[in-house]
Amino acid sequence: MADTVRAQLLRHADSDVVAIRHEDTSITWRDYVAGAARRAGAIESVLHGVWTENAYTASSRPRHVATLLENTPEMLYALAAGALGGYVTVGLNATRRGESLARDIRKSDCQVILTDSVLEPLLDGLDLGPVSIINTDSQQWKALVEASSAPEDPPEVTAMDPFMLIFTSGTSGDPKAVRVGNFTVTMSGENLAQNFDLTSDDVLYLSMPLFHSNAVMGGFSPAIAVGATMALARRFSASRFGDDIRRYGVTYMNYVGKPLAYILDTPPRPDDADTPLRAAFGNEAAAKDIPAFAERFGCRVWDAYGSTELAIIITRTENSPPASIGEPFPGVAVYDPVTGEECPRAIVDDDGAVTNLDDCVGELVNTDGAGFFAGYYNDEHATSERMRNGMYWSGDLAYRDADGYIYMAGRSGDWLRVDGENMAAGLIEEILLRHPAISRVAVYGLPDPRGVGDQLVAAIVPRHDSSIDPAGLEEFLAAQPDLSPKAWPRRVRIAAELPTTATNKILKRELIREGTGGADTWWERDERGTAYSTQAAARV
After folding, report:
1. Which residues contact 404 (CB under 8 A, 6 or more apart)?
2. Residue 50 and residue 54: Cα distance in Å, rounded?
3. DSSP character for 329?
4. 525 forms bridges with which residues in the sheet?
5. What pLDDT, in 10s, does the model give residues 489-503?
6. How many Cβ atoms from other residues are within 10 Å of residue 120's Cβ?
7. Burial of residue 103, with CB atoms counted within 10 A of its CB: 0-12 exposed, 13-18 middle, 19 or more buried
8. Which one-letter DSSP state was computed for residue 12?
9. Contact present, 65 and 43 (Cβ < 8 Å)
């Protein structure tokens, strides 16, 4: 197995299999590797001060080249060029704006930013520090690439050297730049290719943003492992998904967050199960969406726990209960963050309700250490928060059943206090998603006006072909034997969409910030009642 991205790419340097398909463009592996090598040579020129726009010489600074690009051929060229040129690619989140974007650039010590005409205006007027900005659509850049050749003596790169800095999604705070090593990428690709029997004949659909770990580990890495075709979507679109998989002959896709729910909420086609798609790999899909997607598209869906840090590995097996995220690798456990001790297993009653949530819910940890986590770049404080007492603390809430399977309960901020009782938002979300008319849901807390604890809020996106009313929701909740009466949402927000990150994860802090205002429909129930009404709620 090749243990660097460079070595994997060079294995396909003479292949005439198509490497990239994007709209009407097709690029072979031979041309892709050669084009990336020329771009690596061009970047060397820029790093030595040849670039005339915002040019500077900063040889003592880290060799960090950032990408502010969506899923275009230039983004794939940039990833390969970093590997061939021996410098670190920094994946900038293309949905960040203003000072937040500038902070990421300064924090990651970028010397060069590769962007295009669509996204370059985002950099206007920002304090970026000493950096060269390159518009990859410009004639100057194209001429420099054409005149360049592969670096003659690129720095030696080992398996443990960083390939990228990838920012976390930022669902629970400012994004942090994770050092992602070469071996982490190559290992992920080789394992996925083997697990899904991928070969150079396969077409991998890359619609998740390539500045994020899911697309790099779940899409780019298996493609370069076997020399398969990468079919690019500039951005994920549920309405365009069906056309794309047919147009490109897609056999494999990766996802993160809620794309399966978005796709399932589009009108079905008679031949959905007859497309070439045979496998989908990702994380954070709702339990009900996994079998529904597999049945509709006649494919295998493998949903695994994942984070940018890659310190904890949990994988589903054929024996995993549908609601669990699977079996943990050795060393992965659930610990009480206060006592630092392992939590007891969940006790489940005859109705399927967990009766000891206060005791069994804790934080997912790796007791053996950091796993593949090499730390956050330029942020020792955040790294030390993750690594405590020789263990990695994920910030994710979970519990284990008697057989050792793990169930998610949300992020650490999703542990709510309602009327004197602890509630895990993630568990309530899974129950609400059983409702056939609900496509997506977010459960969160707003301050209780009495000044103690939280009031539960459920923000619901109904399916496009369904409707839900207050009486129907009350009837549904009453029929759920494992739902505590205190876990009934005090307020319900009916929305067309929910705010999300670039990786399709719901931004609960934005929902909390909005309070109970806005144009969405709101229902509420009396403190001790069960019936929902559409009376206007006061802004919190």
Report:
1. 327, 328, 345
2. 10
3. P
4. 532
5. 999 999 999 999 888
6. 17
7. middle
8. T
9. yes
Structure tokens at 16: 């005439």
Of 50, 55, 23, 80, the closest CA to residue 143 belongs to 50
The CB density around residue 330, as the number of other CB atoms within 10 Å, is: 9
Structure token pair of residue 153: 């003596």
Helix (H, G, I), strand (E, B) or coil at 115: strand
Per-residue model confidence as pLDDT tens digits over 25-42: 999 999 999 999 999 999
Assess contact for 444 and 457: CB atoms under 8 A: yes
Give the single-character DSSP code of 368: T
The strand pair at 415-418 and 421-424 is best described as antiparallel
What is the DSSP pairing of strand 203-206 with strand 229-232?
parallel
Residues in the chain: 540
What's residue 538's pLDDT? 38
Integer Rg of the chain from CA: 24
Given a contact cutoff of 8 angstroms between Cβ atoms, the answer to whether 125 and 74 are in contact is no
Helix (H, G, I), strand (E, B) or coil at 62: coil
Strand intervals (E) in 182-244:
203-206, 229-232
Q: Confidence class of residue 450 from pLDDT cuts 50, 70 and 90?
A: confident
**Cα–Cα distance list, 364 to 163, 282, 355, 369, 375 (Å):** 27, 19, 20, 12, 17
Instruction: Judge contact between 32 and 20, C-beta under 8 A.
Output: yes
What is the arithmetic mean of pLDDT over 411-425? Answer: 83
CB-based contact 428:438 (threshold 8 Å): no
* Tokens found for residue 288: 């009900």
Share of the chain above pLDDT 70, in %: 96
- Choose among 232, 211, 333, 207: nearest CA to 282: 207
What is the Cα–Cα distance from 119 to 123, expressed in whole angstroms? 8
Torsion (CA) 475, 481, 484, 489 in degrees, nearest 10 = -30
CA distances from 402 to 323, 337, 343 (A): 14, 21, 12
Tally of CA atoms within 13 A in the half-sphere of 464 that contains its CB? 10
Burial class (CB in 10 A: 0-12, 13-18, 19+), 62: middle
Contact indicator for 483, 431 with CB cutoff of 8 Å = yes
Q: Give the residue among 112, 304, 68, 99 at the shortest CA–CA distance from 209.
A: 68
Structure confidence at residue 57 as a pLDDT band (50, 70, 90) = very low
Does this model's pTM top 0.85? My answer is: yes
Concatenated DSSP letters of 262-305: HHHTS---TTGGGSS--EEEEE---TTHHHHHHHHHT-EEEE--
Which of 447-451, 491-495, 515-519 ranks highest by mean pLDDT?
491-495
- What is the band of 540 on the pLDDT scale with cuts at 50, 70, 90? very low
Structure tokens at 114: 């590769």
Closest CA to 318 of 302, 335, 332: 302
